Amino acid sequence: MLSKNQAKFIQSLHHKKFRLESGYFIAEGEKVVEELLESSYNVESIFATKEWFDKNAAGLTKLQKRNTALKRIEVTFDELKTISALTTPNQALAVAKIPVQVLDEANLMGRFSLVLDEVKVPGNLGTLIRIADWFGIQHIICSSSSVEVYNPKVVQSTMGSLFRVQVYYVDLPEFLNKIKTKLPIIGAVLDGDSLYKTSLPKAGLILLGNESKGISKELLPLVSQKILIPKFPESHAESLNVAVAAGIICSETLRVRLK
Amino acid sequence: MLSKNQAKFIQSLHHKKFRLESGYFIAEGEKVVEELLESSYNVESIFATKEWFDKNAAGLTKLQKRNTALKRIEVTFDELKTISALTTPNQALAVAKIPVQVLDEANLMGRFSLVLDEVKVPGNLGTLIRIADWFGIQHIICSSSSVEVYNPKVVQSTMGSLFRVQVYYVDLPEFLNKIKTKLPIIGAVLDGDSLYKTSLPKAGLILLGNESKGISKELLPLVSQKILIPKFPESHAESLNVAVAAGIICSETLRVRLK
Q: Which of B148, B154, B98, B150 is nearest to B128 (CA)?
């Protein structure tokens, strides 16, 4: 049964301020919670229906061995609704510790990473994390003004990929200025070279801009390789969604890596 | 000023049932409404703030010449909030006629089109329409079970591309069975050939499946070219978002067309 204090605590975790203060976040949805159980994340408690606990008994036993302090709280579907941040709550909600991610530049060498300049829409960040996971990109570096990764909508839309990708928040101009001599910075801009004709390096940073403003003026001079996702010659479309653009570029980087 | 009857009518258009009954839909957001004004769509009325009318005076004069019956209703931001389907309403909302789209198979020959098998998430359909517009794909054929294209969330997420792309709803098994001898049917599946190694035809249908179930069992045997978007060898990701997958495949078709 769900206590009033538990409900209040979980509801507070819907808000960034309380997540940062407490150091905890919530993960919801069958797939996301299952992936969380298999990850190295520190899970504090699971609120789920009897059906869900029965179905996931094996995974939970393993987790309980690793993490003896794990609390399991059986709740009804109606109780779940009161603590869920989703419009359609699922059968399980987990509370886990926000891991401390320390960016070590050495880990970025010899591989591709994503750099996000003010990505604001939670679903976009989630989809970007899923793309990174698919294409073997382990590190995502965000400007401090980007949407927070433990926002419940972001967590949900990563479909579990969040637990396999590292996400950092940094002062982006400072970071890029420091690293620019060590790694190429690839940016998609309207006056770039066609992605179908240009040759990509074997490692680098893929810089993606804000949903409506693109890459900020301050960062544009730091781009060392300007690329363009070609558009059909007669098309009147103005832009692609940032996650779709990232998917196309990341796929090209995998083509290069698999060669 | 907004009348009670007008407010009631627009609120009814938030629901599919009333859109289909009345034959009207709503378009919101500055960019979307601007693109609507420039399209061949039949706009019935525009509810907007004074600022918006002032800013768009030129476009409106042109539209009024083509469409003398156009009604312009100046509303306050608070009135707009009561009729908006968005969480953050914008400065303008337009009511327009749903055009009758008749699928003529002859129009699909010699080009690429998208075929959607039960795409359910409004934002995904919107993003798919935006991708089609960017890559010069004019026709999207949806299974009748797919999300309706005049859903306000779909309209919003197309960013105006909706007005340049034709979307049809058909009995998909019947349609594909009839057309399969005339056009290749390309489907992304887990046992397909790597997109980096296979060669795509110069025209065809790109079949995309449901967000969680993929391409349905009934349609799989109709796929004539099975392709796979390669995954990083050690990745544990299970899937890509349907719109991201579509973006990667559509980009490949443009590469072929531009050759």
A: B154
Do B129 and B250 lie in one domain? The reply is yes
Best to test chain B binding among A86, A134, A213, A256 (most B CBs inside 10 Å): A134
Together in a domain, A124 and A246: yes
By the 8 A CB rule, do B185 and B225 touch?
Answer: yes
Query: Containing domain of residue A203, as a range?
Result: 105-258
Domain count, chain A: 2
d(C-alpha A24, C-alpha A95), whole Å: 7
A196 and A72 in a single domain? The answer is no
Q: Say whether both A188 and A228 belong to one domain.
A: yes
Which residue of chain A comes nearest to B137, CA vs CA? A232
B135 and B216 belong to one structural domain: yes
CA torsion angle A87 A90 A92 A94 (round to 10): -30
Find the CATH number of the domain harbouring A153.
3.40.1280.10
> Where among B29, B64, B97 does a domain terminate?
B97
Listed residues A97, A121, A153: the one ending a domain:
A97
A248 and A127 in a common domain: yes
pLDDT in tens, B170-210: 999 999 999 999 999 999 998 899 999 999 999 999 999 99
Instruction: Evaluate if residue B140 carries a pLDDT over 90.
Output: yes
Mutation site for B-interface testing, chosen from A87, A124, A127, A232 by largest number of B Cβ within 10 Å: A232
Is the separation of the CB atoms in A120 and A147 below 8 Å?
A: yes
By the CB < 8 Å criterion, does A237 face chain B? yes
Question: Do residues B75 and B113 share a domain?
Answer: no
Q: Which residues on chain B are in Cβ contact (under 8 Å) with A165?
A: none
**A245 contacts on B by Cβ (under 8 Å):** 247
- Please check the confidence at residue B88 and state whether its pLDDT lies above 80: no
* Mean of the per-residue pLDDT values of chain A: 94
Q: Does B101 touch chain A (CB under 8 A)?
A: no
Asked whether the beta carbons of B67 and B43 are under 8 A apart, the reply is: yes
pLDDT surpassing 90 at residue B58:
no
In this prediction, residues A122-140 reach a mean pLDDT of: 97
- Give tens-digit pLDDT for A43-78: 999 999 999 999 988 888 888 888 888 999 999 999
Cβ distance B239 to A195 less than 8 Å, yes or no, reads: no
**Average of per-residue pLDDT values in chain B:** 94
Q: Are residues A247 and A120 in the same domain?
A: yes
pTM for the full predicted model: 0.94
Provide CB contacts within 8 A for A88, sequence distance 6+: none
Interchain pair A258, B123: CB under 8 A:
no
Question: Pairing mode, if any, of strands B92-97 and B43-48?
Answer: antiparallel
Question: Could you tell me the pLDDT band of residue B87, with boundaries at 50, 70 and 90?
Answer: confident
Please give the pLDDT value at position A168.
98
